[in-house]
Amino acid sequence: MAKTIAVANQKGGVGKTTTAVNLAAVFGSMDEKVLLVDADPQGNATSGLGVDKRQCPVTVYEVMIGGEAASKAICHTQYKNLDLLAASIDMAGGEIEMASMERREDRLKIPLQEVKDNYDYIIIDCPPSLGLITTNSLNASDSILIPIQCEFYALEGLSQLINTVRRVKRQYNSMLELEGVLLTMYDGRLNLTQQVVTEVKKFFPRKVYSTVIPRAVRLSEAPGFGQPVEYYDHYSKGARAYRELAREILKKKG
Ligand code: ADP
Ligand code: MG
Fold it and tell me: Do 112 and 60 meet the contact criterion of CB atoms below 8 Å apart?
């Protein structure tokens, strides 16, 4: 049965989508069967995999709002062992539609249960907010992976994120764990980066991955070609970093 990991942080631009897409692709290349769920209405993970809306007409919107089966919505990608539950811009309004629904926190958890046996990992790319899509994602997950960008104010907003995790744990999903904290856009030459690393480690003792994701131009180019960096430039430092992260996570799972 799949382990489900939500990649979440309500701040935008911290590397959630980059991490979700690239970790999913690397797991796939390592013979793990993976489903990537693009829960962000912006759909950056969907386009980052080069998936066209027409190829994948049934989306996370029909599943979460329309009650469609996940198996009807999932599409295969051109990448090894990697399936996608595509995003839809309709989900932007979907959050409001969900608000008045019964069991509105279970709209993703229940459909994913039906497909969990088909995968080793389900990775959910969350939107940059702490609204209902993110709470649904956390409720559907075994753990949360938090990317943190090495910049000023890196810790800003983290207490709200942690409070949301606690609330979901208390009300809906007592099994939810902190998978780990990932430092992204790391530049070891900068004093600022070192300061952020120290602060983040103080905030999350023993939960920060020893793998860090460097600031790397290949990582920002790859989505423009609809490719995970694993396939776009296998030997680049970005690709190596995400392979190292995948190994670190696999090792922990045991
Ligand atoms: P989020 O999903 O949290 O909003 P993204 O993953 O979309 O963040 O990243 C924000 C921007 O930064 C994107 O343009 C992405 O290509 C770029 N980016 C992300 N990680 C890196 C990195 N390690 N090095 C360079 N650019 C990166
Ligand atoms: Mg994103």
Answer: no
Q: ∠87-230-118 over CA atoms, to 5°? A: 55
- E strand spans, the chain: 3-7, 34-38, 75-76, 82-85, 121-125, 143-149, 177-184
Closest residue (by CA) to atom 24 of ligand 1?
215
Ligand at shortest distance from the CA of 127: 2
Delineate the domains of the chain, giving CATH numbers in brackets.
3-253 (3.40.50.300)
SS3 at position 182 = strand
State pTM to two decimals: 0.98
48 pocket-lining for ligand 1 (C-beta < 6 Å) = no
Give pLDDT tens digits for 7-64: 999 999 999 999 999 999 999 999 999 999 999 999 999 999 999 878 899 999 999 9
